[in-house]
Amino acid sequence: MPDRVSALERAVREITEIQKAHRLVLDQANRPDTALWLAQPPLLASGGPGVGVFAEGALCRQQSFEQPYFSYWAMRLNEGLRYHRKLWEFVFIAQALWERGLCSPGRRGLGFGVGRERLTALFASMGVAVTATDLASDGRVEAGWEATRQHAGGKDGLRYPDVCPDDVFDRNVEYRPCDMNAVAADLVGYDFCWSACALEHLGSIEKGLAFIERSLDCLVPGGWAVHTTEFNVSSNDATVDHEGTVLFRRRDIEALTERLQRQGHTVLKIDWSSGDQPLDQYLDLPPYRDDPHLKVSIAGYATTSIGLIVRKGMRPALDAPTVAS
User: Fold this and answer.
1) Whole-model pTM?
2) What's the whole-number mean pLDDT along residues 59-74?
3) What is the CATH number of domain 21-311?
């Protein structure tokens, strides 16, 4: 028996080494010329928030990183400029909400699965009253977020004085634990809500779609929901479902769109182009790089980030007065 175990261990080790070597070969073969991305994207210091940038939903693409608005939001977040899809998600959310006049004093925002992201501090710095939510302590351990330090654990975990002064942060931010599969009934009356790559971890594609639908209940009529998640670029059929991370297909998003439109909501159409520039063609393989990282391989599928923008339906007027002729 010991000899058999030893042989099995050696075989597993050899297979693992071959897989690693294979990944390295593929990575080197597919990696774009460093001149195309090293020390990039350019910092466009004169930029400001864009106008009409995200009139519709979008996929993460290289082109976005090289626009003035992208530099602006990266600087506001005090995030180093890099070709990374997570940064694109933060910029997408901030830009989409700013364009719709929601980043201003008197507005109320609700963040789901916020982890340690800087968006809470950013919105608070603009005068928005923010409720930031994430898994409770028992949930975060189960999901593995605590071990990887991706869980805020409370209000102080979201404090970034380089983004928002402490006094403004304390005045404008509250923190609550929240299970995105069972959102509390009293989380209502918000002008907008958001989540950044969180809903793909809810257990299934359907649970993720149900969360987006549920998030609209938290908004005032005419409020906006902006969510980013994993998108399967490879296939509109085969995908990953009922796993710790699921991959949404175009058909899943289109089915959700029909579902929400039947309820009177507006889902902005999506630009499905995944880009044709050099970094759009590069597929990052595990273990993933910090840069460039726009498209990645997950379970054998080419994946990138998608941004969705939904407006809650307006409540119809009741007993409208008759206008005399």
Assistant:
1) 0.87
2) 95
3) 3.40.50.150
